[in-house]
Amino acid sequence: MSVNTEYVWFITGANRGIGLELTKQLLQSPSNAVLAACRNPGQATALQALVPASNGRLHVLPLDVTDRQFVRDAREAATAILGDKGIDYLINNAAINLREWDSAFTLEPDVMQQVFETNVVGPAYITQVFLPLVEKSEKKTVVNVSSELGRFNADFGTRSTSYSIAKAGLNMLTYKQQKERPDIIFISLCPGWLRTDMGGQEAPDDVSVGVEGVIKTVVGLTPADSGKFFNSKGQSLSW
Ligand SMILES: NC(=O)c1ccc[n+]([C@@H]2O[C@H](COP(=O)([O-])OP(=O)(O)OC[C@H]3O[C@@H](n4cnc5c(N)ncnc54)[C@H](OP(=O)(O)O)[C@@H]3O)[C@@H](O)[C@H]2O)c1
Asked: Which range is the signal sequence, renumbered to this chain (predicted)?
């Protein structure tokens, strides 16, 4: 198999929410092919429904981001699909926020560990394993989907503590990645508060609005942007 589009995107957690919307919007341009990873392709009805009209530009891959063997198998599957091509944009999007109201003194250690495993260890290992494919591409860009909840000095009070700590950790991962590999663009990006299962229905913006901004921000990146934290308006944020 091979892919003939100009750009290749690899997205984790592509079966719903922001990952699904990213996939939908990216497929609107014939320049893009998407390798859409999700835990259960057989149950990813909305994602699978996009395949027939994609003219071979959408490939759905199984991937649990917490399972190391799954990650390595997904790299092999991606390599088989891509032939000589690489991955221009690796989007570490999958994440969990299991206890929206946990605080420093109510958090459950096992839950915190699970959140850290999914939101930090998963993206770190995926990027390690997929690096050869990113290196082969033209754009060489890795996006760690983060959150303003992981920022210092952002006033979100005591809630979502495990999630916030994990996103702060993910931001440090971006910083470390960029320090080690200045030839690749690594950014953290907060998509904004959007109406998804995680964002809830009270979020101010439809997921399509935030994702439009995410895509515009990501495709506009230059090497000088590496190691920074952005919002979906393309503005650089303090850590
Ligand atoms: N929505 C917001 O307001 C908001 C704000 C700031 C940042 N974010 C960030 O944006 C990203 C996407 O959020 P969202 O709102 O789209 O969340 P969502 O609607 O809850 O979707 C989360 C996605 O992550 C996947 N996922 C979770 N654990 C996984 C695992 N172990 N392996 C593979 N996939 C896994 C889920 O797959 P399953 O269906 O299999 O569970 C689902 O596809 C996250 O990084 C989140 O932190 C969101």
From this structure: none
**Per-run averaged pLDDT (10 residues), the chain, 239 residues:** 90 98 98 98 98 97 98 98 97 96 95 98 99 98 98 89 97 98 98 98 97 98 98 97
Helix (H) or strand (E) holding 143: strand 141-145
120 lines ligand 1 (CB under 6 A): no
Nearest CA to ligand 1 atom 37: 13
Tokens 């290749």 belong to residue: 8
The class level of CATH for 7-237 reads: alpha beta
Mutate to test the pocket of ligand 1, among 170, 193, 196 (most ligand atoms within 8 A of CB): 196
**Cβ-based neighbours of 28, under 8 Å, separated by 6 or more:** none
Strand partners, 189: 145, 230
Q: Which residues contact 171 (CB under 8 A, 6 or more apart)?
A: 144, 146, 150, 151, 188, 229, 239
Residue 1 confidence (pLDDT): 63
